[in-house]
Amino acid sequence: MAEIIRMPRLSDTMEEGNIIAWLKKVGDTIATGDILAEVETDKATMDLESFFEGTLLYIGQQEGIVPVDGIIAIIGKEGEDIEALLQEAEQAGDSLSKSEEESESGSKEAEENQATTPPASSQESAPEPTSDNTDDRIKASPLAKSMAKENNLNLSHIKGSGQGGRIIKQDIEKALEEGSAISSIAGSSTMVLQSGENVEIPVSQMRKVIAKRLGESKFTAPHFYLTIDINMDRAMEARETIKALGQYRISYNDIVIKATALALKRHPMVNASWHGDKIVQHGDVHMGVAVAVPDGLLVPVIRHADQKPMHVINEEVREKAGRAKEKRLTPEEMSGNTFTISNLGMFGIEEF
């Protein structure tokens, strides 16, 4: 019997997922554990794994937004009729996995072609751009667009190796290695708008959730701010001594993480969380470290930071920060922190 694949809830705050790319196509044989597609959540880009085996009979949407529990694919026996299954799901009020951008083609066309041809998004049906100012119309994954923007790359100068010529992460990395496509759009971030001109900037799933959570935090909990100056002379001397030994790399951020973690262990009322009608003190010190990414901030967690030497903290922060920028952190690696550090000192910011 055919099985419906629905958009899973891949993080505790996820309400919808953004299908970036399918790694399988209709007609492919699927084994349990195969990766079907890449899905962007509000926190990371994750692999969608199949828990069924059979033939991929239907893809509801090649790319775009699908709500949690929305139908995205069907796996069953080759040649199996899935019309009744889709109709039953529709009658039950389930999504047929068509985003608003793809609705103009109508659900009727999708149902007529569901067994052979998945509905094409308006982005894919658009003609290939011919000028340097049409990046929004170029077929590229959200991650590729984000990486291109961060590195000032012109997408129209990059050849895509994905399905249908789609630009994917590997194409951006190749362009960076070869030094190609470096930007004729370098000045776009400092573009001066004319009087009366407005520019709309679409936001990612991550930014939507960041805005929502920050609003909830700001208006549902009392805020107070404490500032103190600390003499870091001895910390600077210690860092230079460690550096001179040539064995480990230690940053000021690592020192701050370690010192804060030790202080939290000594003062458990600070290493605590408010839960509406109670305060929970945490026996473990798990430090969240804010990492800037093109779409906002991600917070990988360094667990048991009070027990780890600084060079281990350094290695873990660098490794997780790298994967954070590629949106490859798992939800588990971004949850459970008992305290969070965000550092803007490298920009000369004294207080924020």
Notes on the structure:
The chain is of the alpha+beta class. The longest helix has 16 residues, at 205-220. The strands form five sheets. A four-stranded antiparallel sheet has the order 1-8-6-3, with no helix packed on it. A four-stranded antiparallel sheet has the order 5-4-2-7, with no helix packed on it. 28% of the residues lie in helices and 17% in strands. It has helices spanning 83-91, 107-113, 122-125, 142-150, 169-178, 205-220, 233-245, 252-266, 310-325; strands at 3-6, 16-22, 29-30, 35-40, 45-49, 54-59, 64-67, 71-76, 272-274, 279-281, 287-289, 291-293, 296-298, 301-302, 339-341. The protein is built from nine helices and 15 strands. The model is unreliable at 94-136 and 180-189 (pLDDT under 50). The radius of gyration is 24 Å and the shape is globular.
Strand order in the sheet with the most strands: 1-8-6-3
Q: Point out poorly predicted stretches.
A: 94-136, 180-189
Computed over alpha carbons, the radius of gyration is 24 Å
Order of helices and strands: EEEEEEEEHHHHHHHHEEEEEEHE
> What percentage of the residues does DSSP assign to strands (E)?
15-25%
Largest sheet: number of strands, sense, barrel closure: 4 strands, antiparallel
Principal-axes geometry comes out as: globular
**Tally the helices: what do you get?**
9
If you average the pLDDT, what whole number results? 79
Pairing-aware structural class of the strands and helices? Answer: alpha+beta
Q: What is the strand tally?
A: 15
Summarize the amount of helix as a percent range: 25-40%
Distance between the termini: 57 Å
